[in-house]
Write a structure and sequence with these properties.
Low-confidence stretches: 118-122
Strand content: 25-35%
Distance between the termini: 62 Å
Number of helices: 13
Helix content: 10-25%
Structural class: alpha/beta
Strand order of the largest sheet: 16-15-17-18-24-23-22-20
Largest sheet: 8 strands, mixed
C-alpha cells in the first residue's frame, strides 16, 4: 500500500552565503529608510523578503512510500540433546503455534531455520548464533523485529562471541526442558594420545552430578580394549587418576563408564572412550648362539638392520670342556655373564633367541628354569634348532621342556626339501601371504637338514621333509614360544636357488611373539570410514563367522561374515549412529568408534538460559518455559520494552521504500517578477505622494 508524504525542500539559485549577504544589505537599506521615516518601508520589506525567498527557490516535495514488512526469526534447535524426554514434542508444538500466530501479526514476515542447517561439523555442538546469522544474512538490521529461539538453551559459541552478538532486534528464548533437571556425566580432563608400550601412563577423569547431590560416591567401570571391566568407587566432583600401561603397539581403547543415578536426563554422557596409540621404544633382544656356524651372521644382520631392536648377542666360543692350559690373562674372550643375563636382568628382555644352542654346562639348569618362568609370566622365546636338538644335549632335556611345543624323536633328517605351508600356515597371519608360498608348489630355495620332532602343542605353520613339523608357534601361560627346526634358513638370505622370504618370516615370528595385534591368528576387529564399518574376523577354523554387533543405542544386529582361504572373513555395513559399537562372536570381542565419542552436545544436557543470557539481556529479549504454555506475542515500538511477564515483543520498525517523488515550485519566476515589480511600484507611489 502506497502513502504520500509532503515536505518543503530548498534548491537555492545562489549559495546560501550570497543570499544571506544580499539579505543583510537589504536589511541595512530598510533600517536606513525606516530611520528617515520613509512611508514605503513596509512594501520594500515585503519585496526584499519575496526576492530572497525566490533566490532560495522553495518547492513542495511529495514522496510515494511503500511500507516494508519487519522480519521475525524462529530458530529451532534440532540437536541430539533435544531428543531427551518430551523436548522434541514440545519443540514441534511450539513452532507450529509460533508460526500460526506470527502470521497474524500486521506487517510482519517470519522465517523458520533449524540449527542443523548451519552446522559445519556435527562434532562442534549446537550453534544458535550461526543459525540466526544465516537466517538474517539478507535482512538489514533496521527491519529485524525479533528472534525466538526454541531450544534447551545449550549453545557452544565462545563467551566473547555471545557477549558481542547483535542481531538488530530482541532475542527471546523458549526453553523446551523442565526446571530443576538433573544429570550425571563423565569428564576426561587429561589423557595421552601416544604412549610407550609397557611404560607407566595415566589419565585423569572426573564424575560430575549436575543439579544433583554430590555427597554420594559413584561406581565407575573401566575396560581396556574390550576386556573385562574393573569396578571402582570414586567420589563425585573430584579428579581421579587412572594408572595404566599399553600392552601392544597400535590403537588401544580405554572405556570409562559411570553408573547412572536416579532421575538423570540421559546415560549417553555417562561413558567416554579414549584412544591411545601405543609405540614400542626399543625391542630388547638377547641372542645366544651355541656355537659359530654359517647362519649365525644372518641372524645378527637381520636384528641389527632394524633400528628399533636393541640387540645383545653372545656366541659360546669356549665351552667348559675346552681346556687347553692357556692362562686366563692371555684369553681375550669375554666371560659369559650368565647370572646377570638370566637372573638379574632377564625380565628386561622382550625376546630371547636360542640359536643352535646345546647343553654344554655354560648355562646351569636353574637359569634355564628362570627362562621357562619368564615365558609363563609373559616373555617370548624363539628356538632355532640345530643338529644338537636331536641329541641328549638338546634344550628339550632341560627345564625348558615344559614350555617347548615339540619333542625331538632323536632323528636328524638330511635331504633336500622346500618348506611348505601347512593348512594352519595358509590361514595364520605370520605365514599366510609370504612371497613365493605358491600353495603346494612354493618357489623358494631348498633346505637340506631339519630335526625330526613330534608336535605336542601349538600350531604347525610350516612342514619340511615328509610333512614333518618345521615351524611351530605356541602360547604358554602369558607368554609365547616359537620353534624353527632347521638351521638352513640362512640359505634364503644368501639367495640360494632364488632364496626366500627369510627376513619377512623371521620379522613376523618376532612380532607375533611380541603380541602385535595385526599378527593374532584369532582376531576380531572393525574399522570405520565414510559412514561404513568394515568387520574382519581372522581364525584358523573354517567354520562361518557369526558376529553380533551392539549399537550405541543398545540394539543388536547379527551378521554372517564371508570367509576366504587366507583365514579372513569379512563384511561391510552402513553406520549412521554415532557412538561406541561392540562386536562379539562369543570368543573374540572388539569395539569401534563412530563419530565423536565425547561430543560437546552431551557436555551439559540441562535446559538453561545461562548460556544465551548475554545475548538476551543485551537485546532486551525475554525467557519463557514451554511447559508453562505459549507466551503472548505483540508488536512494540523500537524504544519500548520488548518482553515482559508471559509475553514476547517484536519491534515495529516502520521501515519503507520510496516508489515515486513529485516536486511543485512554490515561487514560480513570473509570479516572483510580478510581485517584485508590483511592490516596488507601490513603494514608489506611496513615497511620491
Amino acid at each position: 500500500m502506497n502513502s504520500g508524504v509532503a515536505a518543503i525542500e530548498f534548491a537555492p539559485l545562489l549559495d546560501w552565503p550570497w543570499i544571506l549577504a544580499l539579505g543583510g544589505v537589504g536589511a541595512a537599506v530598510l533600517v536606513f529608510a525606516f530611520l528617515r521615516h520613509l512611508p514605503g518601508v513596509p512594501l520594500r520589506a515585503v519585496a526584499l523578503a519575496a526576492g530572497l525567498l525566490a533566490l532560495a527557490n522553495p518547492s513542495l516535495l511529495e514522496e510515494e512510500r511503500e511500507p516494508l514488512s519487519d522480519v521475525a526469526i524462529v530458530v529451532v534447535d534440532d540437536s541430539a540433546s533435544q531428543g531427551i524426554g518430551e523436548r522434541r514434542q514440545r519443540t514441534e508444538a511450539a513452532v507450529r503455534d509460533l508460526e500460526s500466530r506470527l502470521g497474524k501479526l500486521e506487517n510482519l514476515e517470519h522465517r523458520i531455520v533449524a540449527t542443523s542447517a548451519s552446522r559445519a561439523d556435527v562434532g562442534e555442538g549446537t550453534r544458535v548464533l550461526r543459525a540466526i546469522e544465516r537466517a538474517l544474512a539478507d535482512v538489514p538490521k533496521d527491519r529485524v523485529a525479533g528472534v525466538v529461539v526454541v531450544s534447551d538453551g545449550q549453545t557452544h559459541e565462545r563467551e566473547e562471541r555471545l557477549a558481542a552478538f547483535d542481531p538488530g532486534g530482541p532475542v527471546h528464548l523458549l526453553l523446551t526442558g523442565e526446571r530443576e533437571e538433573r544429570d550425571r556425566r563423565l569428564v576426561v580432563e587429561r589423557a595421552p594420545r601416544y604412549g610407550l608400550v609397557d611404560a607407566d601412563l595415566q589419565l585423569t577423569y572426573r564424575v560430575e552430578d549436575q543439579g544433583g547431590d554430590a555427597a554420594l560416591p559413584a561406581t565407575v567401570l573401566i575396560r581396556i580394549d574390550g576386556g573385562p571391566p574393573e569396578s571402582l568407587r570414586v567420589p563425585v566432583g573430584r579428579t581421579q587418576t587412572l594408572p595404566f600401561s599399553l600392552k601392544h603397539s597400535g590403537e588401544t581403547l580405554i572405556e570409562i563408564e559411570v553408573a547412572p543415578v536416579d532421575g538423570e536426563l540421559s546415560e549417553r554422557n555417562n561413558r567416554t572412550v579414549v584412544s591411545i596409540s601405543g609405540v614400542r621404544d626399543r625391542l630388547r633382544v638377547l641372542l645366544v648362539s651355541g656355537e659359530p656356524h654359517a647362519g649365525e651372521r644372518t641372524w645378527r644382520n637381520i636384528l641389527k638392520s632394524d633400528p628399533s631392536v636393541d640387540l645383545v648377542h653372545f656366541t659360546i666360543l669356549r665351552p667348559p670342556e675346552k681346556q687347553d692350559g692357556t692362562p686366563i690373562r692371555e684369553l681375550s674372550l669375554i666371560s659369559f655373564p650368565t647370572r646377570e643375563l638370566f637372573q638379574t636382568k632377564l625380565n628386561d628382555f622382550d625376546l630371547i633367541i636360542f640359536d643352535r644352542y646345546r647343553r654344554r654346562g655354560v648355562l646351569p639348569n636353574v637359569y634355564l628354569a628362570n627362562v621357562a618362568d619368564y615365558v609363563t609370566l609373559g616373555g617370548a622365546v624363539l628356538v632355532a634348532a640345530g643338529p644338537a636338538f636331536a641329541t641328549p644335549l638338546s634344550l628339550y632335556r632341560t627345564s625348558l621342556d615344559k614350555v617347548l611345543p615339540s619333542r625331538p624323536t632323536g632323528r636328524l633328517l638330511s635331504e633336500s626339501f622346500r618348506p611348505r605351508l601347512s593348512d594352519a600356515g595358509r590361514r595364520h597371519p605370520v605365514t599366510t601371504d609370504l612371497a613365493g608360498a605358491g600353495g603346494d608348489a612354493p618357489t623358494w630355495g631348498r633346505w637340506f637338514r631339519m630335526v625330526d620332532v613330534e608336535a605336542a602343542a601349538g600350531q604347525v605353520l610350516m612342514n619340511g621333509i615328509a610333512e614333518r613339523p618345521l615351524l611351530i608357534l605356541n602360547r604358554v601361560g602369558e607368554g609365547r614360544v616359537a620353534q624353527l627346526l632347521s638351521d638352513h634358513v640362512y640359505l634364503w638370505a644368501r639367495g640360494f636357488e632364488g632364496g626366500g622370504p627369510q627376513a619377512e618370516l623371521l620379522r613376523r615370528v618376532a612380532h607375533w611373539l611380541m603380541k602385535e595385534p595385526e599378527l593374532e591368528e584369532e582376531d576380531l576387529r572393525a574399522r570405520v570410514a565414510g559412514g561404513r564399518m568394515s568387520i574382519q574376523r581372522r581364525s584358523l577354523a573354517e567354520t562361518p563367522a557369526e558376529v553380533t554387533v551392539t549399537m550405541p543405542s543398545g540394539a543388536r544386529r547379527q551378521l554372517t561374515l564371508t570367509p576366504d582361504e587366507s583365514g579372513l572373513a569379512r563384511t561391510v555395513i552402513e553406520v549412521d549412529e554415532p557412538g561406541l559399537y561392540r562386536l562379539s562372536d562369543g570368543q573374540q570381542s572388539a569395539v569401534a568408534a563412530v563419530g565423536d565419542l565425547n561430543p560437546k552436545e552431551y557436555a551439559d544436557l540441562r535446559a538453561t538460559a545461562d548460556r544465551l543470557q548475554p545475548v538476551i539481556a543485551a537485546s532486551g529479549g525475554g525467557v519463557a518455559w514451554a511447559i508453562d504454555g505459549a507466551p503472548a506475542l505483540r508488536r512494540v515500538a523500537p524504544e519500548r520494552d520488548a518482553a515482559g511477564r508471559g509475553w514476547f515483543g517484536f519491534r515495529a520498525n516502520g521501515e519503507y521504500r520510496v516508489t515515486g517523488v513529485s516536486q511543485l515550485p512554490l515561487m514560480p519566476a513570473l509570479v516572483v517578477l510580478a510581485l517584485l515589480l508590483g511592490l516596488t511600484a507601490a513603494a514608489w507611489y506611496r513615497e511620491g505622494r
